[in-house]
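W.,

You were right to be curious about this one. When I first looked at the sequence I had no strong expectations either way, so I just let the prediction run and decided to look at it fresh. Below is the sequence, 335 residues in total, followed by the output.
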Amino acid sequence: MKLRILTLFFISVFATFFAAISFAENTEQSPSPKPAQSLNQVSRLFENKNGLTNFHEELDGIPEVDKLGMKLPSGLNAKDLIRLLAPNQNPNLAIVVGAKAFPYRSNSYVVITCFARTQNEYEGRISSFDRNSCEKENRDRDDVVYVGLIEYDPVESKPKLIAKSLEIRVGWLFIITEQFRSDSLEKKFLLPKGRYKEFDLAPYRVSDTQTAFGIRIGTNDGYAGGFGYFEVLTLFMIDNNQIVNILSEPIYFYQNIAGSWNKDGTRQHSLYEGENVIVVLPKKTDGYYDLQIKALDNDWQKTFSWDASLKRYLPSDRTAILNRVLAETLNLRVD
C-alpha cells in the first residue's frame, strides 16, 4: 500500500511539472429537468439566449447569426487579413474571415480566418447553413483555423499585425460535462473539438497588463428523439507576438430529451440547461489573477491559478485531481 501511494505521489509530481496530464471537471450537480408537453413548447423554457438560438438553428435549420464579425469593420478587407494571418493559405478557399473591435487596446481588432482544405470542401461549406463558423476535427470537417490581433488606424493605409497564432490544433475530447486535456506536449493550443462560433470580449483582465479575449466553441450531440449542445469558452492572450490559449473550460450546455408519447401523437420533452460564468479574483499567482468558474444555478465552483512554467491556467487543486485520475488510469486504490 505504501508503495502504491509513493508511486502515485511520484507520478503526480512528474505529471504536474511536465503537464503530461491535466484534468478539468465541470459541475457534478445535474440541473433539474424543465418539462414540456411537446417539442413546440421547449423553446419557451430556455434561459440562455445563445442556447435558444442554437436550438432553432438545429431544429428549424435557421442560418446562424454572424458572431465572428464576417461583416468586416470599415477600412478592413479580407485580402489584407488573410495576408497577415495566413499568408501560406489559398485565399480562394477562405470560408470565414472575421474581425471584431478589441475594446481593451487602442485601434485593435481580434481576427479569425479559416479555410477549407479542398475546393470540394469549400463548395460544400459555403452552401450550408453553418457557413458563419469555423470547425475543427468534428465528424467530416477539419478547417484550417488561425486567430490573431491586428492594429488598424484609419489614418494609416494598411492594418498591422500585432500577434497571430500558428495553425490552431485541438487536443481535448469533449464528452457531456467532462473534458480531458491531451497528453501531447507538442499540442500548444489545447483546444476542444467543435465549431468556433463567437468572439467573447468580456473584460477578462488576467493581469495588470493583459486582458484576454475569448472564443466560444460549441459541439452538438444527437440522441433518439432529442439532441444536446455543449459550449466551451477558450481564452487567448498575447505572448511574444503570438496568440496562445490560456484556458478552455465548459461554459454552457443544454440537452433536449424526448420522453413519453402523448395521445395526439406529439411527444413530451425535458430540457436540461446549465451555465457557468468566469469571475476574475483579486488573488494573484505569479503575477496573474486567479480565475473562478461558477455555476449560475447551484453552488458549484472551481478556481484556476496561473502556471508560470506552462503559461496557462490550471485547476488550483490539480495535484489531488491528478492523484485520482492516475489511480483510476492505473487501476490503483488509494485508501
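Here's what jumped out at me. Helices lie at 2-18, 49-60, 78-85, 119-126, 318-329. And, maybe more interesting for your project: Residues 136 and 208 are 33 Å apart (CA to CA).

Coffee later to discuss?

I.
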